[in-house]
Amino acid sequence: MPSLFDTIDLGPISLKNRFVLAPMTRERCTQDGAPTAIHAAYYAQRATAGLIVTGNNRVSPSGACTPYGSGLHSDAQVEGYRRVTEAVHAAGGRIFAQLFHAGAGGHPDILPDSGEPVAPSAIGWGGPVRTVNGSVPCITPRALETKEIAGIVDDYAAAAVRAKAAGFDGVEIQAASGYLMEQFFSARTNRRTDRYGGGVENRCRILLEVFEAVSPVFGRALTGIKLSPEFNKHGFVIDDEPHLTYGWLAGALSGQGAAYLNVADNSKETDYHAILRPLFRGLYIANVGFTPARAQAYIREGRADLIAFGRLYIANPDLPQRVRTGAPLNPLDPATVYSGTTRGMLDYPTLDVPNASAPPLEEQPAAPAGG
User: Fold this and answer.
1) Which phi and psi angles does 315 have, rounded to 5°?
2) What 3-state DSSP class applies to 119?
3) CA pair distance 122, 62, nearest whole angstrom
4) Is the dihedral of CA 54, 59, 64, 69 positive or negative?
5) What pLDDT was estimated at residue 134?
6) pLDDT at residue 59 greater than cutoff 60
7) Residue 224: beta bridge partners?
8) SS3 content of the chain, % helix, strand, coil (to 5)
9) In Å, what is the CA distance from 296 to each residue of 166, 273, 315?
10) 351-367, pLDDT tens digit by residue?
11) What is the dihedral of CA 10, 210, 167, 59, to 10 degrees?
12) At 66, is the pLDDT very low, low, confident or very high (cuts 50, 70, 90)?
């Protein structure tokens, strides 16, 4: 009977257990998007997971949506991440880089040359944007011209090349959380009349093109995808037919040989794991809201191959050990999630170090709270 503690193969690499550190934007980078010693220590602490997936890494300067988020489009970012991957590998872990473009989530306050954000159509983000000047209202993005889309696809491929240079084991394409890929999926935010708009196949075309461009870098077996049916960012990216859209995507990505689907099921009424898992031949990662007991049941019953933990893993660097031994779990301190310092990153106690305190690593200015 399978267990969270069993090993599992992800393409050519073996994962030591079925725990995944979910991709989460932890910020705290330099303003040019380079990770620091804080990130190396944070991810090394959580190399207890079978697989770590980093938070969003913008594929170009124009893909940013936070002032202290990370990227994979410069040499400085590669150098920063090389320190991260070396620390994780030294601790016996595996780590994938998540690649993304914010689309309408950008803002002139954080984009190069005070540029305007781009999106499938000129439809606003619907909520605030976090900048160095605090939280500000979104602005209406500029609709991408058809000829520009190939350039964005190329940016993803170039970011994957940089991820490999930085020592990552693979990459995950962020097609969730209301960002650019999902803005294309949704008929409410995609009013295009070219080959990237209209029916579900056209609206999902950009993701399949990105996958085809990115996958040669690590191979299809080490290129995963994150999806989030009914995420409904700010009431902005809302799919009117999520069963159709995401069912079609799961089948198409399965046909393309994607390594895994990391599915964040945010629905209150629909079990998307039950819908999507049978449609996908690769590994299936179930994400959002899992307790250890529910996660064990999903693995035991074959409803998922791995389980992604977010908030539990922030607060419990040794989460697998705590679950195995039945030890109590540390509570999350929401006030320090985006503190901008080592607080909330490196100071959660482990069973081996019960009175942990944050080490005096370099600290970045505090980013505005939010998520």
Assistant:
1) -85, -15
2) strand
3) 16
4) positive
5) 83
6) yes
7) 172
8) 35, 15, 50
9) 33, 15, 20
10) 998 887 766 655 443 33
11) -140
12) confident
Radius of gyration (C-alpha) of the chain in whole angstroms: 19
Nearest to 11 by CA among 225, 223, 197: 223
At 316-365, the pLDDT tens digits run 999 999 999 999 999 999 999 888 888 999 999 999 988 877 666 554 43
Model confidence, pTM: 0.95
Phi, psi (degrees; rounded to nearest 5) at 367: -85, 155
Our measurement of the distance from residue 346's CA atom to the centroid of its chain's CA atoms, rounded to an integer in Å, reads 20
Write down all domains in the chain, each with its CATH number in brackets.
8-336 (3.20.20.70)
Tokens of 264: 């964040």
Which structure tokens are listed for 145? 């011209």
Residues annotated as catalytic (active site), given as ranges = 179
Q: What is the DSSP string of 248-281?
A: HHHHHHHHHT-SEEEEE---SS--HHHHHGGG--
Determine the straight-line distance between the first and last CA of the chain, rounded to whole angstroms.
37
Per residue in 128-182, pLDDT (tens digit) is 888 888 888 889 999 999 999 999 999 999 999 999 999 999 999 999 999 999 9
Enter the tokens of residue 269. Answer: 């009424």
- Burial (Cβ within 10 Å: 0-12, 13-18, ≥19) of residue 253: buried
